Amino acid sequence: MGSLPSDPPTGRPPVLSPSQVSSYLAHIGLPPSFHPSASPVLDLAYLTTLFTHHITAIPYENLIIHYSPSHAVSLDPQTLFRKIINPPGTPRLGRGGYCMEISLLFLHLLHALGFPSAYTVGVRIRPRSADGVPSGQYTGFVHLVILLTLPGDDSGQRYVLDAGFGGDGPTQPMPLVEGLVHHNSVGTQEVRYSRGWLGGKSRFVPPGDDRRLWIYEYRNGVEKGWNAFYAFDADFEFLEGDFGVMSHYTSTAEASFQTRAVLVVRFLRGEGEDGGVRVKGKVMMAGPVVKRNLGGKTEVIKVCETEAERVDALREWFGIVLTEEEAGSIRGRVSELRGEE
C-alpha cells in the first residue's frame, strides 16, 4: 500500500482562498459547526457530512457539452468555481458538472479544509447497455475518484470519494476494504469494492495478487448477483494534466456517450435518524426522459418532446437555469430535441 503525505508535498498554498471556501460551504449548505472557523474534528463523521452535502447540492451534469456557445469543458479550478459555486446573495443557477469537473473542484476543497493527503486516480468503466446495465469490456480512462486518509489516523486506512459518477455512485465515503458491503442509501442497492483483473483484451500477466485492481461493484438486492461498474489502481496517482487529456476525449469524441446525450443526476437531501443529512432519493435526466427514485421503484415523471420543454424540466426538477444563449447553443447538435419535424 502506497504511503500518503501528511503535509502538502510542495508546500504550496491551497488553490481555493478562505473566502472561496466560505462561499463553497455556504453553497452546499454545510452547517456552521463544520466550517473551519469552528475548528471541527476532521474525522469520518465530518467527511461523511461534507460528502453528503456536496453530492446533494451539486448535480452531475454534462450540459456544458450541449448547452454552451463553446461546448468546451475547462478543468481550471477557478473556472469551475465560477461555474458551479454561486457567491452568497447571487441568483442560484444550480450548475454542476461531469465527473472530472466535480471531483477536481472537490479535491481542491478537501485540500483547503485540511485533507492534504487527498489525491486522484484514473478509472476505467464498463459501458452500459440500453437498459443501463454495465456489461462487456472495460473502456479506457474516462472517470476518476479521490482517495485520502483522515488527518491524524496512523492506521493508513484509505477512503474513496466518488462525487461524480452519477446515479449509481457511492453516496458515502467508502473505506478501501475488500468485500465490505454498504447500503447505497436509495432503494435496495448495495455496493462494495472487490479485487480483480481487467480481463477481456488485457494482455497483462499479473506478477502477484498485490497488483490486483479495485473493482466497484453493485447489486440491486441481496438476492441479486454482483456486477462491476468500474476498476482502478489505488496506487497510481493521476495528475490534472492526465484528466485534461481524458476530458478532451470524453467531451469531444463522437464515440463518447457524453457527446450524444444530455445527462443530469441530482441526489435529494433528507434528514437522517440522527438529525444529520442523508440521501433520500434522486432525480435523473437521460436525453428527453426525466425519472425519479425516492427509495423504491424508479418512475418516469416527464418525457420532453422539444428543447423548450427540456429547458423547463431542467429548471423545475433540477434547479438548473440556462441563459437564452446557452439554451439556443444546442441547435444542430445530435443531442437536440426537435419535436415533430
From TrEMBL:
InterPro entries: Arylamine_N-AcTrfase (IPR001447), Arylamine_NAT_domain_sf (IPR053710), Papain-like_cys_pep_sf (IPR038765). It holds the Pfam family Acetyltransf_2. SUPFAM superfamilies: Cysteine proteinases. GO terms for molecular function: acetyltransferase activity. It comes from the Eukaryota. Transmembrane segments: none annotated. Belongs to the arylamine N-acetyltransferase family. This is Arylamine N-acetyltransferase 2. It comes from Schizothecium vesticola. The lineage of its organism: Eukaryota, Fungi, Dikarya, Ascomycota, Pezizomycotina.
